[in-house]
Request: fold
Amino acid sequence: MLRRAWQGGAVLIGAAGAWTTWDLLQPLPTTGFGGTVRAVPEDSVPEDSVLEVRAARAYLTRIDGDVVAISEKCTHLGCRVPWCDSSKQFECPCHGSVFNRAGERRAGPAPRGMDRYPVEIGGDGLVYIDTGSKIEGPPSGSKETIDEPPAGSSCAAEGA
Ligand code: FES
Reply:
């Protein structure tokens, strides 16, 4: 009887060790930058401007009604590219690259348009940005997919 108790205990310890090892090897859910970021309600994403989501280091906008997430990192040397409200385009303060609202390159040394992230609209109506899966921006010289010329003066010209 004592022998069976020892055998049962050894089996339990082995099972606990196997479960612990399996549990430790599971990938951790990532919910910050580098993983999926829960952003804002879909209906708050603007049509003619952008909404910055700091946690995702990205901007949300709509292109032909679809929600699009654009990385705020310049494809030249990685500066954060701010949105300019007066010109309605992205203007990199480091070396002057300019991108339209869709992130397509208009001017400057950037080798391509701004990168994007896949987005999903959850069942809760929120936008989820997958910052772990970057989509390369369109190459320089690509035809712009939106017809939105600069709306006003450049923020760089204003010194803003
Ligand atoms: S880092 Fe943006 S233009 Fe150089």
